[in-house]
Amino acid sequence: MKKVGNHNSISRKLLFSFTVMLTFSLTSFAQDAVSAEATEAPVATQSADPVKGKELFNSNCAACHKLDAKSTGPALRGIASKHEMAWLYKWIHNSSEMIKSGDPVAVKLFEENNKAVMTGFPQLSTDDIDNIIAYTSEEKAQAPAPLPGAVVAGATDQGGISNTIILGALALVMMMLVVMLFLVNKVLTKVAKANGIVVADKAASTPIWKAFAKNQFLVLVTSILLLLASAYFVYGFLMQVGVDQNYEPIQPIHYSHKIHAGDNEINCKYCHSAARVSKNAGIPSLNVCMNCHKNISEVAETTATPEYSKAFYDEQIQKLYTAVGWDKTTQSYTGKTQPVKWVRIHNLPDFVYFNHSQHVTVAGIECQTCHGPVETYEIQKQFAPLTMGWCIDCHRKTDVKMEGNAYYTKIHEELSKKYGVDKLTAAQMGGLECGKCHY
């Protein structure tokens, strides 16, 4: 028989050739598209430094602008795609001059933002502006991925047998043992009956409680131990009355000291300014919050934690806006306010006198001494017991601050000779006198 060549080989060669040509064509098209995009992209984003741009943005622009939301001015993310670079240079250097000249884009932008005049920045060079534009051209950061080892709801253990399966198997084995013991007992009972074996009854014995009641010595010793133990626990319970250490109430507006005092390093006395000059530290006015949150209506994506999401923090800022009557859309106050019913955490008895200014300003004691590491607290709590013993112990250990305090100079010279020490404690200066704290 005559051997005929494989007619499929020609088709396969043609198909292979067509595939190679199509691959090269798509690759060339993609390279052309990338080149075109690089050509169309703003010149500022090609050689500028977005890291320096972020620093310039925070120091010059952040007071009135956000990247992804409208503030006093418009959102600035992707601003390079809306305006030409030459126009942006002029606008940033002197926006008022462009508005007066009748530039239609400048006038429209001015009217769209409630006719708020933008501050001119003639000190910024074109390179500085390029850096800022490069920063605003970056893509929005995504939410952080779960930390390694964090428990994710619905996740299963892929590396081994589930604990539930192991516990279920153990429970099944225990049930089987119980059933087997029951069956063995039943079989042995039948065998005993078949062989005529009679199991002897246990001899009656005196109940243990009767034997205990007849022993007068044990009754006396036990009674004394019970009385002492009861007195100990009653004393411990009564001594804790009014001691609210680690009290951590939920507030109507969630306020994170960790974010404010920790991450952003806001000084405690910026919000609690009364602590420097008054007996009480005071509850900060919501107007103090609005000094910053007028332009901070949402937190960064990186602020979110596994326990508290970005949406949760943003909701708390909205509660603040509702309380003060702030409309973030129009950037104006509505006049409709709502009181915030804060839950008090630290509360001394009425017969105790404590002056914050005397400790903060005169003694120079840090807030963390009494309130703990507040910069690490997500929810504020009472750190110290605030008992009389705790205060007295502090007075016995703390030296009086003498530098720049002429009031104590004479008394310090006299008492230091009396006690034979170089530095006096608050206790040696009269800090243990009853009238100092009780009046």
UniProtKB/TrEMBL annotation:
Segments crossing the lipid bilayer: 165-184, 217-238
A Pfam family the protein falls into: Cytochrom_CIII
Entries under PROSITE patterns matching the protein: CYTC (PS51007)
Gene3D superfamilies: Cytochrome c-like domain, Cytochrome C3
InterPro entries in alphabetical order: Cyt_c-like_dom (IPR009056), Cyt_c-like_dom_sf (IPR036909), Cyt_c_III_dom (IPR020942), Multihaem_cyt_sf (IPR036280)
Gene Ontology terms, MF aspect: electron transfer activity; heme binding; metal ion binding
Record has Amino-acid biosynthesis as a keyword: no
Domain (Cytochrome c): residue spans on this chain: 48-140
The entry's keywords: Electron transport, Heme, Iron, Membrane, Metal-binding, Signal, Transmembrane, Transmembrane helix, Transport
Signal peptide: 1-30
PANTHER family linked: CYTOCHROME C7-LIKE DOMAIN-CONTAINING PROTEIN (PTHR39425:SF1), LIPOPROTEIN CYTOCHROME C (PTHR39425)
Protein name: Cytochrome C
